[in-house]
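Assemble and predict.
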Amino acid sequence: MSWWADIPLFSIILCLLSAALCSVLKARAARVTGYTVLALCVSGGVMLLSGLLSAGGSVTFMMGHFPAPWGNEIRFGQLEALLAIVFPLIMLMSLLGGARRMEEQVTSFRENLYYTVCLLLNAALLSQIYTNDLFTGYVFLEIMTLASCGLIIARSKGKALVSAMRYMILNLIGSGLFLLGVILLYDVTGHLLMENIRQALEKLHAGGEYKTGLTVIIALITVGLCVKSALFPFHTWVPDAYSNGTPASNAILSSLVSKGYIVLLIKCYCRVFGPEVISGSGINNLIMLLALSGMIIGSLDAIRTKETGRMIAYSSVAQIGYIYLGVALGSEAGYAAAIFHLLLHSASKSLLFLSADALQTVSGESCEFGPLAGAGRRAKGAGVAFTLGAFSLVGLPFTGGFVTKLLLGREALNRSVPVAVAVLAVLVVSTLLNILYFLRTVILIWSPGETVKKRTRFGPAFGISMIILGTGILACFFLASPLLDLICMGLTNFS
Amino acid sequence: MSNRFRVLRAFFTESESPLDTDQIRTLTGSVPDNRPGDADMLVTHENNIRWSGRNLDNRFEKSKKRITAVYRVFSVLAAVMIIAVLLFTVTDLPSFGGVEKPTQNEVQQRYLEKGLEEGGATNLVANMILDYRAFDTLGESNVLFMAVCTVILLLRISQGDTDRRLREENDDRHFEPKNDLILQTGARVLVPVIQLFGIYVILNGHLGPGGGFSGGAIMGAGLILYLSAFGFARTERFFTFRTFKTVSFTALSFYALSKAYSFFTGANHLPSVITTGTPGAILSAGLILPLNIAVGLVVCCTMYAFYTLFRKGDM
């Protein structure tokens, strides 16, 4: 086996070890450790991807001395490697972009634990991406649940505590449903390893056994993960959870945590159940219905709200709808669109949360829209970043969002006429609604407002994070076709 | 009891009997002066109640009606529906304990037949969780660590906040008996036995029923009993926040490093220095015994930390 095949193991262990280390370090040392480890994970991911590109196919890696199904196992191809580059990178950028608020909002005596939480979250995300075993997926899903609550709680503010509680209750319901699904699945197939479950399920499906059981299992796993990733109508916790933490937490939660659950769901659909079982169960129609409603209702909620943070949070509901729409289309092109939008949304959403926070700083720390007038002129860099993120989520040309809408629209045309019409109509309406609330904000921040008295400096870390995230969004448009080729190649090796 | 904990409790009881502003003030502002932390909490809690922009009374009236009427009916309906669907599903599943069950397959056959030879522990469950599927258990022990980190983030009071620390320390026995003779005598007799039993369960984990998780929970419970009987002055002689940090860090990093070694050698088919030894001997079963000790320490510290953090916001 080639040397790069050990990279996933080492990135996960490194994250776990340094998470424990951060809990005994002082804030400053923990911060340096956190940044270094995340950067190492990113570079490890790059090496893994280049290794996998030259070798082709996917690699199965035994976690221990015993082959699966007896021992644990991880499996990775190009798609997993791509995700393992993007997720730690976005986490690093979110931490860098939100670093200036740490001292004030987390306080230095707890800051080291903030990095412990982040690194454990990163270890859990990586394990979620790599795992080939459904129960390992559940164990790391638990870490993600707790870590995401920890990220909100880190801000000592009453509102943050209450939203973390709500978030935790719904999140635990989601975990519970997912666990029930895994248990039932184990009961009917006798396996936890994804490929073995698939084989057993194919037999059951062909023989027509456990029909009700299978439908319930698919429903439990889907609903569990949908609750956790905030698909409409399970989105009520989103605005509070995504707008009350520190900016770094908001960015990480909205751009990474929900995506981790979606990756697990896609893995369940592609690798565990397989297209026949999924299309036989009709779950795709349900997801499509929910995704389409989410795309509209999330945007309507975003228009109604009076606060910037909540607006961006509500727009997540709509954007998650786009990702689920890709999943619901069920074809390879659909999944590719879903994963493309998942990557793009991670970059755009963290960019939006971080730059909106900077814009609020120059507007008297107000959460509301009014004082933001002219904020872009007072903090030009943050203004440009916010504009770029907003354009990308609206789907204007030269940003990645345009490509998503194109992909989803094109894939919908291959469907029956009513489905195609519905999808295209919702895409158009949702885009118009996006324009309404995002461009309204963009116009507001560039309109004349209060003049600058003293220039606010956000520091080089913030600048780097804005530049890299912004470049990512532009790259999603200009490098869309190689990126899509990579995703498609990864998807072939994924299932 | 920590102040933050009270606010959270107020949040939970809110839907049952909505708090009015005075009640919140008595809950969060029961302190003589207005330090920024408490003031912030008070204000933000009021904000929570005014969240959707409506005024207080209006919101309470409406939410009370809404919760009692619609939400309760719907939640009962939803729960009944889910119960019905799950019960119906159970009837469709393979019968419990049947020989033909899909779970009776080559996986558990190898665990049962070759477990002793391959893992070396006479407790086959220990083989499964700490050897065959050690990656899951590594994650599981980090779940505990994550939980305790979250609770520390939530409840620990900063060193600089001396007033609040003092208040919590004076207040920490509000709901506890002070120097209760029965409790102290009971604890004097029970705590050594409980600790010994906990150590036995951990050390015996690879030979019989037991292991790190259960043994650690027993030891943690013993520590909590000791603390309730004798107070912090006695426990702080041997267990402070520093002890907690050192022990959990050492145990977790030992776990991660040893398992990294085992995973690495296993996956790359390299020879490993870890041998299974004679099954049944106390020093056998390779890494299982040290891992049980590490897990036991993490669990014990976690249980004790939860208790002390909820009680006075520090250890």
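The two ends of chain B are 13 Å apart (CA to CA).
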